[in-house]
Amino acid sequence: MMNIDRTDLRILRHLEQNGKITNQELADAAALSVSACFRRVKLLEDSGVIAGYRCIIGTREVGLGFETLVNVSMRTDSDRWHENFVKALDDWPEVIEARIVSGQYNYVLTVRTSSLDHYSDFVINKLHKSPGVMSISSSIVLATLKQNGSLVALLEKG
To answer: pLDDT for 17-62, tens place per residue?
Structure first.
């Protein structure tokens, strides 16, 4: 684990808000020289603190506005149930996130589709047919109240 100081937090806060900021703009915002800022960003990247940069796609704008959280329970007496399920996830582009969880279910999936019909087709023809799936519980997302919260804010309170 890397020791993060206040200057690193300033850099991270600005990158978290705008991953496309230029090194010059970032250096100015962090009160550093361009070369010092570049070195710090590189160190943050190399240490894994900055895990990557990405483009966030407007899901409604591209016709994928139907989001569902899906809890999946598996029959653990089925051979290689976990390995088979994880492999199946690679073949399902509708699943944009998958987590192993504790409690009543084995997995929580975030599924994105174009419509309820598309989601129904995914559940019936893909998810239910996956070996070892015992039960599925779906929650349709009506609205997202908070997304991509600030990890820097959490670190600062730490």
So the answer is: 999 999 999 999 999 999 999 999 999 999 999 999 989 899 999 9
Long-range contacts of 82-90 (CB under 8 A, 24+ apart): 82/106, 84/130, 84/131, 84/132, 85/130, 85/132, 85/133, 88/126, 88/130
Measure the CA–CA gap between 95 and 41, rounded to whole angstroms: 32
Query: If you ran DSSP here, which 8-state letter would residue 36 be given?
Result: H
Place of tokens 């084995």: 106
Model confidence band, residue 158 (pLDDT cutoffs 50, 70, 90):
low
Domains contained in the chain, CATH given: 6-55 (1.10.10.10), 66-140 (3.30.70.920)
Residues 59, 65: Cα–Cα separation, whole Å = 5
Q: CB 23: neighbour CB atoms within 10 A?
A: 13
pTM over 0.90: no
pLDDT digits (tens, 9 = 90+) for 60-76: 999 999 999 999 999 98
Q: Report residue 75 as tokens.
A: 């029959």
Torsions phi, psi of 121, nearest 5? Answer: -60, -40
Q: What is the mean pLDDT of the chain?
A: 95
